[in-house]
Amino acid sequence: MHVARRMLIEPGQKGGCQCGAIRYRLLRAPVALYACHCKDCQKQSSSAFGLSMWMERDAIEFSGGELAR
């Protein structure tokens, strides 16, 4: 049975890449947050799943280094 839950990612939260060169701040809640269990996501995350988050372009603010794309 699927149970809907409140999204724990809210505007104002901050984060960044592992090396610390790029930082971000969320301006609005994400469109979607999901776990994928495909082999590519397992390989990339070295886990049983990979987490992905869809954001609208103007809902996230980047700072620090230059983004690759």
Low-pLDDT windows of residues:
none
Strand content: 25-35%
Whole-number radius of gyration? 14 Å
Distance separating the two termini: 38 Å
Number of beta strands? 5
Q: Name the strands of the widest sheet in spatial order.
A: 1-2-5
Succession of helices and strands: EEEHEE
Oligomer: single chain
Helix proportion range: 10-25%
Instruction: Determine the number of helices (DSSP H or I, runs of at least 4 residues).
Output: 1
Overall number of domains: 1
The major β-sheet equals: 3 strands, antiparallel
Global mean pLDDT: 85
Shape: globular
Structural class of the secondary elements? mainly beta
Molecular structure report:
With 69 residues, the chain is mainly beta. The chain has one domain. It has 1 helix and 5 strands; from the N terminus they run βββαββ. The protein has one helix at residues 39-45, and strands spanning 14-16, 22-26, 32-36, 50-54, 60-64. The strands form 2 sheets. The protein has a 3-stranded antiparallel β-sheet with strand order 1-2-5, with no helix packed on it. A two-stranded antiparallel sheet has the order 3-4. The longest helix has 7 residues, at 39-45. It is globular, with a radius of gyration of 14 Å. The mean pLDDT is 85.
